[in-house]
């Protein structure tokens, strides 16, 4: 009689216990799930932090590595070249028009790309998870650091931003007032395309206290009429070495103050890559521009 009464109670107990374990396990998986909204406004849901990542934007490649997660990268675009270890990874073409088949063959559980990339829809149609993140400003870099930190399970990714921000401020304090008064033209390539006040580069120049001759209203990287630069007559020109060839021979440029006094900073290819990428080498970029200002403008 006692055994007959005890059996249903035990069965009920074990049923409750089993359901409890199922709920607990399901809840644990749910707690690990990730939901992030990318720069397209698309919400990306993942069961857990991705372990096999293809990056199609150099600044995102650098950020993943700066967050200590370089080993998760299995493929990159052809322009991703820093840190040097990523050069040994599989290259999958350009960031805007990558080799879709090569990406699929790498079996990624996440593809990182620019919002302007045409590959997102095709990759998603093939069942791949995609996040579009395209930092263009200092504020964007801070946001992308936080988002990638969440995606990769990195504790306090904002610590990196705080350190970068503090380093840029420290660099700015090293420049004398005479240098900070300089009027600067930064040429991105020989289109000529310039970096305006509203660009990532322009924001760094502003942090250093110099005046950018290309205003924000022209857009971040506008194509410039060479006559505009002649009329603005900057004190200093910053340009990649590969784009500076023949600059002095442009109509009217020989009369400009910066050309006459050879106040031109010609950056190496490696320096140019670092300067134009809105990524975790932001403080190094500030140091490079500050060194240029000290070297060329100390006499003003």
Explain this structure.
The protein has 2 domains: 34-155, Nitrogenase molybdenum iron protein domain (Rossmann fold, 3-Layer(aba) Sandwich), CATH 3.40.50.1980; 174-297, Rossmann fold (3-Layer(aba) Sandwich). The longest helix is centred in the first third of the chain and has 31 residues, at 2-32. The protein is an alpha/beta fold. The chain contains 12 helices and 12 strands. The strands form 3 sheets. Strands 5-4-3-6-7 form a 5-stranded parallel beta sheet. It has helices at 2-32, 58-66, 100-105, 120-125, 138-152, 158-173, 177-180, 200-207, 226-232, 257-260, 269-276, 282-297, and strands spanning 34-37, 43-46, 53-55, 73-76, 90-91, 110-113, 130-132, 183-189, 193-194, 211-212, 236-240, 264-267. Strand 3, helix 2 and strand 4 form a beta-alpha-beta unit.
């Amino acid at each position: 009689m006692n055994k007959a009464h005890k059996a249903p109670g035990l069965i009920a107990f074990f049923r409750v216990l089993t359901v409890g374990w199922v709920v607990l396990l399901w809840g644990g998986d749910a707690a690990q799930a990730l939901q992030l909204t990318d720069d397209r406004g698309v919400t990306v849901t993942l069961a857990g932090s991705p372990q096999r990542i293809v990056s199609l934007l150099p600044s995102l490649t650098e950020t993943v590595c700066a967050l200590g997660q370089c080993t998760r990268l299995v493929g990159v675009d052809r322009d991703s070249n820093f840190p040097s270890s990523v050069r040994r990874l599989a290259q999958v073409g350009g960031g805007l028009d990558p080799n879709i088949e090569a990406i699929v063959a790498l079996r990624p559980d996440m593809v990182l790309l620019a919002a302007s990339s045409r590959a997102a829809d095709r990759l998603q149609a093939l069942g791949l998870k995609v996040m579009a993140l395209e930092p263009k400003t200092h504020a964007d870099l801070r946001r992308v650091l936080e988002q990638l930190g969440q995606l990769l399970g990195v504790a306090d990714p904002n610590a990196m931003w705080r350190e970068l921000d503090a380093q840029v401020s420290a660099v700015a304090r090293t420049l004398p007032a005479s240098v900070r008064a300089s009027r600067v033209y930064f040429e991105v390539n020989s289109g000529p395309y310039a970096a305006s006040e509203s660009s990532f580069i322009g924001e760094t120049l502003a942090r250093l206290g110099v005046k950018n001759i290309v205003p924000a209203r022209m857009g971040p990287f506008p194509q410039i009429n060479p006559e505009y630069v002649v009329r603005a007559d900057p004190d200093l020109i910053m340009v990649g070495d590969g784009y500076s060839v023949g600059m002095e021979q442009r109509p009217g440029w020989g009369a400009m103050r910066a050309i006459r006094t050879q106040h031109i900073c010609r950056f190496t290819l490696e320096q140019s890559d670092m300067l134009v990428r809105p990524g975790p080498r932001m403080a190094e970029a500030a140091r490079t521009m500050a060194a240029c200002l000290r070297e060329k403008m100390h006499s003003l």
